[in-house]
Structure formats: C-alpha cells, structure tokens
Amino acid sequence: VYHSSFVDEEGITKACGCPLLPLKSHIKGPAPVSEQDKTDIVDEAITFFRANVFFTNFDVKSPADKLLIYLTFYINVALKRLEGCRTLAVGTKAIINLGLEDIPVPGEAGFPFPGLFSLPPSQEEADLFRNYLKQVREETSGRLLSVAYRANGTPNKWWLAFAKRKFMNVVVL
C-alpha cells in the first residue's frame, strides 16, 4: 500500500479527524492554497490509485492516509461513472453531475467509511468538512479527466479498466 507523504500536521486545520491539506486549486473552498510546483494530496491519490485500488486492507499510518483512502474511493466512483462515456464531453458531463450530488459526512447515511473519520462535534465542523470534501472532489474530478481521456478526447482504457475494481471491498453503486 502506498501511503501519503503528508505526515507533518503542524499548522494544519482538522475536521472530523481529517487534515484539511493544501490544494493546487482555483476552486473556492476551505482548503489552503498550495504552491503549483508542489505535490498535493490529489496528485498523490491519482498517482497511487492504480496500485492502491488492489488492496482490501489499508493500514492508516497518518491522518492524511484517511483522506487518501477517501479520494481513492472517490476516484473509483468517478471511473465507474466514466465507464460508459465514449468522449471527453460526455465524461465531463457525467463528472459534473457526480459533483452536484450530496456529500455525506461521518454519521450521515451514505458515508462510505463509517468509523474511519470521527463524528463531527458541531454542525459548523460538519459543514467545514463537507465543503472541504466538495472542494477536493471537484479538484480530483478535473485532474482525473485529464488522465482518463487522451488529448484527442478518446477514453484511456488503461485508466477506465480500473472502474471494475472494488476498493477495500466497498461496493459502488
């Protein structure tokens, strides 16, 4: 299993036991802005996805690993949505629709990993975590489209083939 390199937590805000790591993003949200030349958690999730998706167990070594698990699951969900999309335009539409869906937080029905994150002690923390997840999902979706489709807009079968995998035996509908 590949683990996150973000183990230093000094100065990082947390919500539900998850660090709100900086992102190289233009999308508005609660995440701090990272330098464009540095690797962020989304880069790690996409880079490690094809290796990590084969594992049924994931030993959490740092709080950032929790976010890596969540993003690996989200990439798996996104690839399932992209599976039947034969062009980049159709895939983009599918990903935008995925981004419009409600995002459950720990303690709510539909959250994929109960027990991985702590329950939010307040509604403010739940909203902060939901907004961070929304921002990180949108950023991941945009970057995923650039690897799941080639420059000419055709699907990259070496990525979309991973839509058939189940990450940590969690079934994606």
TrEMBL record:
InterPro entries: ARPC3, ARPC3_sf. The keyword rRNA-binding does not apply. Gene3D superfamilies: Actin-related protein 2/3 complex subunit 3. It is found in: Cytoplasm, Cytoskeleton. GO terms for cellular component: Arp2/3 protein complex. Belongs to the ARPC3 family. The keyword Cytoplasm applies. This is Actin-related protein 2/3 complex subunit 3. Pfam families: P21-Arc. Keywords: Actin-binding, Cytoplasm, Cytoskeleton. Coiled coil: none annotated. GO terms for biological process: Arp2/3 complex-mediated actin nucleation; regulation of actin filament polymerization. GO terms for molecular function: actin binding.
